[in-house]
Structures are given as structure tokens and as C-alpha cells.
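Practice problem: predict the structure.
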Amino acid sequence: MADFTLYYWPLPFRGQFIRAVLAHAGADWDEPDADAVSDMMSREPADQPVPFMAPPMLVEAGGVAIAQMPSILFHLGRRFDLMPTEP
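Answer:
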């Protein structure tokens, strides 16, 4: 089982930054196809991992879900100790 699931369209835009950090950190992740992304977005907000989900969204194996590229990158940076120690 993968460490993460990245919900994003099969395009090299916002998701590419997340893919790059995951690859750099040596993480294992899955990417459902575009139909799965559309299905997730069409669910009722209460049934989505992040209400009013819009790609990209990253779900950790433990169930933590984060949306919005900057938030995801900040989370991954802290999780994989990639953030600077000083501003």
C-alpha cells in the first residue's frame, strides 16, 4: 500500500510540484485516474475527505487529507524535514 494518494488531473501543473517533493523524499504514492478525481469532486461535501475538494488533494495512508498545493507542500516539507531551520 502506498504512503500517499494524490488526487490530481493527469497534467503537469500544480500536481507536478507535489510529485517532485514526494519523489525527492522517496515516498510511495498512487494517483487515481481522472474519473476517480471527478467522482471524488461530485460527492456531497460531507462525503469528501476535504469538504468542497478541488484538486490537488493529498491523502496520507493514515487518513489525513490536505487540499491546496501550498498547504500540501508545506505539510510535506515539515513531514520530510525539508524546511529550513531559520527563516
